[in-house]
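Example 3.2
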Amino acid sequence: MVPASHQANDFIQKNALTSGVINAIINGAIGWFMFRGKETIPLTVDTISAHEKTVFSTGVMTAFILSLILGTIAFFTFSKKAKDFSVPFPKLLNRPFLFFGVRTVLFYSLFAFGTVTLVALFLQKFLGMILVTPLVGAIILGAIAGIASWFINAAVMKAMLRPE
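Structure, written as tokens:
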């Protein structure tokens, strides 16, 4: 395993953090507009076939779709930007989106999906149904989106610098 240059690592951390904060704010605001008319919203419900909107049912899909979109954007923008950095193996940045990029983005997107799903499952299993206010629901949704955005950006960019 060859470590990334300090310049590339600083770029990855800054870009991932910026993306996480921006997406947390945007998706938190979207969550607020989605939940604002209700008195309370459940974090999770006990059945998978429930038609009731919950914070985590929205958060799981937000994390997955956001990861697919942002992972693809990160792949293309980082491959162009990192050519200016001193990386140990610059040829790694020339790998094609089909199949390397698709596989990388899909892998980390499914990881984000599974992680949020497991958090929701464990919350439901050990704490039962928890009702929250629309503001708290929006904050949690924003946190899910922010963490997923930070994670997918950092993971895809670091994967691009690793030899297979």
